[in-house]
Design brief:
Length: 629
Amino acid sequence: MTMGAKTQPRLNISSLILLAVAFVVAIAISNQIFRGWRIDLTENNLYTLSAGTKDLLNSLDEPINLYFYFSDDASQSITSLRSYAQRVKEMLEEFEIQGNGNIQLNIIDPLPFSEDEDRATQFGLQGVQSGMSDDPIYMGLAGTNSIDNQEIIAFFQPDKETFLEYDIAKLISALSSPDKTAIGLISGVEMSGSFDPQSQRMSQPWVVYQQAQQLFEIRNLGTTFIEIPEDVGLLWIVQPKNLTNDVLYVIDQFIMAGGNAIIFVDPHAEVDSVAVEGMPQGMPPMGQGSNLPELFEAWGIDFSSQNVVADAQLALQVSGMDRRPVRHYGIIGVTDSLMSPDDIVTAQLNVINLSTAGSFKKLDDSATTFQALLYSSAFSESMPATQFSFLPDPSTLQSNFVPDENQYALAGRISGNLTTAFPDGSPSNGNNSSTALKDEHLNETVESANLIIVADVDMLADHLWVQVQSFFGQQIANPFANNGAFVINALENLSGNTDLIGVRSRASYTRPFIKVEKLRVAAETRFRQTEEQLQRELDETERRLVELQSAREDSGNILMTPEQQDEIDRFINQRADIRKDLRAVQRGLDEDIERLGVILKVINIALVPFLLTTFLLIGAWRKKRYASL
């Protein structure tokens, strides 16, 4: 054996040792160089925070403590909940990383009868009984800031996963700015209560106004103001009637300077009705309309102030003439299928009731971004608002109703860069000091605007969405629609900083087995068809038995005739056959799913390794062949 042959193994071993050392050194260096670097390879970037959230976290100037309470031990048998808890935990960890030291995350398992469980309860977190564990399960978040303000998410609901990032960001935003947001109210109707001349007493404030007061500082600006306080960042405009150009100019410049607004206008506001002289006694008063044509036109939006959207599919039932129930095509209940699922304002809502609402549409030459939040159905028609005045019998609307197959936008969000409705400056040209603004005139928005517009004022009134009852001197509000939640969602969203408003819904972590779901749906369809066949056979048998019984001369005899007994025996035999078919359909579903599972296992366990091994062998063979040439 030659010397070269003896030293070759030694060189190989030395090379392997050097490679191993180099690998360890490279890992150590990369850990230092790329510390904190993260790559999100998920399809929908589930672990990448939006730009708005990152800006919010970068703007924090004080530490915020987050306490994520999850009952890890009590949820051992609930796999789906544990999977979602892991998703929440990873999202919170991403917040902590992006917080640059200002987010302190604490993950706590509140064991039963422990101090941790007591503190979770003190925070207001909810322990849910699952039925699979004797102990309550906690999965909530509590947050505190440096002055001991507290905010909570009582329980992370898996069905709200798409808004997980928004909910956490909203909690942090509330802790970073603990003071109540000031909202300027401009209303042509008395929402805060007024003196009722009929009852000679003060009327109660609207429930939606009372709810907003609990969360915000409401400043009633009236309708003749000359300026907007500097600490007001959001305008709540309701039924804007007869506003002067000077007031419109103040609103316009507020929007241009970066302020937000939620605006309720109406072609026929029944809550703002006036009596008309000469009308017969007992006729209802006529509702008044409202509009902001100068501002809407400048923002690229057209509002149908003279027409009401009538909808045959969404029409609600009211009392007509002689107190007979009748469907009113102008009073509609917008269901969740006709709401924007991607906007935080309308997500998770079920129904919003509107009355004689108008509609919006974007002008053709407008560069404004308009996203509809509420739609009418395809069975709707735009009707003149005058048809809804003095309407004693709502059923008359049905006689001339012809749906035009259009889906009208009943509410929407305006965003983007807007231009002023007053390009020449203040209508008073600065001659009237009472309307001259302190700042210089702005021709366009300083940043992207964010406005929500609603084509109905009546939706704010109590009778359309909430029932108020007196209970031992306390007024208890029981909502039967989500009108109040819609308004509060909008106020919270628009009153937040621009970073929070920019946070949108995210894709869901849960990835369904689409092929399996298709198989399941197909099997359920077959199952339902077979079940319906069984029911039809049962109905037919009962009909035959009744006919046989009625045809008997001794109808008082309770004993069955041979014909009746034969009919029952026939049905029993046929029912057994149909039930056998039902079981076969169910077994077929299981077999299809199991067959799909076997195919996937064969692909993953056998086919893929076989193909990889084959490619490696072919590569080695080709390399050896080329080396021998």
